[in-house]
Amino acid sequence: MIIDVLGDSITAGCGASSPDKNFVSLLRKKLGCTVNNYGVGGTRIARQRAMHYEYGNDHDFIERLPMMDKSADFVFVFGGTNDYAHGDAPVGDIDDNDEYTFYGALNIIVKYVRENIKNAKLCFLLPTHRLVEKYPFGENGCKKGGCEPLIDYVNAIKAVCARHGLDHIDLYGGGFTVTEENKNEYTSDGLHPNDKGHEFIADKVAEYVRKNS
Q1: Any idea what the CATH number is for the domain that residue 183 is in?
Q2: What is the number of structural domains in the chain?
Q3: Hey, is 166 helix, strand or coil?
């Protein structure tokens, strides 16, 4: 069995105390199979219209789709938190099909996987909670035109999954909460999971794979 995981810094392993404790590495151990990690820190699902002051051309998810193993049995897509925090693409509308809105980028990902990784079961992971979920103008004020709350991105992923008949793993409604008081329980910094948080995510994904294999 082969699993592809496309994501951002959380998928790359940020917050884990060592590479073998990030959720992708844990998946390999739990399932005993090949799990390809396509996580790149700072990246977003949707494409930027202008370079970000910190991340520049951040190699968005769509740009990286062709790098993925086309013989995969499962494809997991785990993103959205960076689109919320510092992406310049609007959430958009569910009928969008261009890479410069969040909805449009999601639809492109679905189309690509269905056409190019034909034997894979595609599943989205909803963003985990984070300490600040309602930035008025994005992280560090980078969204001058205002910022939709994280829940809007969560709901967009759910809506796209519903439209295309796809599953999602609810790490938002069914995951851990993050507050100032408990932020160190599951995260290292209020966003990136610590070892306990990565274990939580790995268990959720492993459970899904076992049920759908």
Answers
A1: 3.40.50.1110
A2: 1
A3: coil
Asked if residue 28 lies in contact with residue 35, where contact means CB atoms within 8 angstroms, the answer is: yes
> CA 123 to CA 170: how far, in whole Å?
11
Give Cα separations from 56 to 26, 80, 99, 115 (angstroms): 31, 18, 17, 30
* pTM of the complete model: 0.94
Q: Which domain holds residue 20?
A: 2-212
Token digits for 106?
């999601």
- Separation between Cα atoms, residue 156 and residue 161, nearest integer Å: 9
The pLDDT tens digits for 103-136 are 999 999 999 999 999 999 999 999 999 998 888 7
- Assess contact for 15 and 187: CB atoms under 8 A: yes
Q: Where are the beta strands (DSSP E) in 40-170?
A: 74-78, 121-125, 167-169
Instruction: Strands of 103-211 (E only): list them.
Output: 121-125, 167-169
Pairing of the two strands 2-7 and 121-125: unpaired
- For the chain, report the end-to-end CA distance as a whole number of angstroms: 9
